[in-house]
Fold Phosphate regulon sensor protein PhoR.
Amino acid sequence: DERQVLQFQITLYGDDERLLMARDITRLHRLEQMRRDFVANVSHELRTPLTVLAGYLETYTDIADQLPPRLARGLGQMEAQTSRMQNLVNDLLLLSRLEIDRRGDDEAPVAVESLLEAIRRDAESLSAGRHRLLVECHDPRQLVGSEQELRSAISNLVFNAVRYAGDGRHITLRWRTQGDAACLEVEDDGEGIDPVHIPRLTERFYRVDKGRSTATGGTGLGLAIVKHVLLRHDAHLEIVSHPGRGALFRCVFPATRLSRPSAVALSSQA
Ligand code: ADP
């Protein structure tokens, strides 16, 4: 659209002096919009060809045992890389939807405990018995938001813990009260992260160890997705970690996002 976008900044000097600055950021705003649309369109267009490729590869995998070993290995590689590309395209698409779509369209009170239980079950299959996954629910309130978006944010945190904490570790999914607010936490007692990396972790494609995270199947977009989902829920992410002492990812939701479960919901849970 042709609207002009202005940015204002007020600076206080002492008790009675103010400096007001206005900046015309129309061009910047438009470029940013073009970048978003471009990423959304490209990811969308890449989806169909990738689905077709993956479909053919799957039919060939069925007859892999009839192929010479070298070809069968190549086929395995092609499948793995195609699925990596699919994950990447899906994450890019999700991220641009989070930036473009109107927020709040599918918001409703979410029963946090059952959401965490569902995510734990998914993570169990990724972990294949290599971790101990626990759910702790200390706050009876529901969280008002988009269940789908919250599920992808929390899943990203839990799947990261499964990928990076190391075998034999504990992973806890926790919903607890903090003053008037409430927190969704994903904590592990694994390898942890050097604090120098923490401020940049939610940037797109930022990784502590590039080789290792591509090997584990990450896209580099997980924490960027988490950050955007939380922004849309008036929430923010805190990360506490030290090498060798585990990692804690805390999503803090304001009181305005919390609701008492209805009597009907309570009795059906009992
Ligand atoms: P990806 O996992 O695809 O690389 P993310 O944005 O989800 O991208 O995570 C960014 C980086 O943060 C990871 O590459 C990893 O180095 C680090 N990380 C995330 N979660 C943990 C964790 N629980 N323990 C240790 N490192 C982690």
Summary: The longest helix spans residues 26-61. The chain has a mean pLDDT of 92. The radius of gyration is 22 Å.
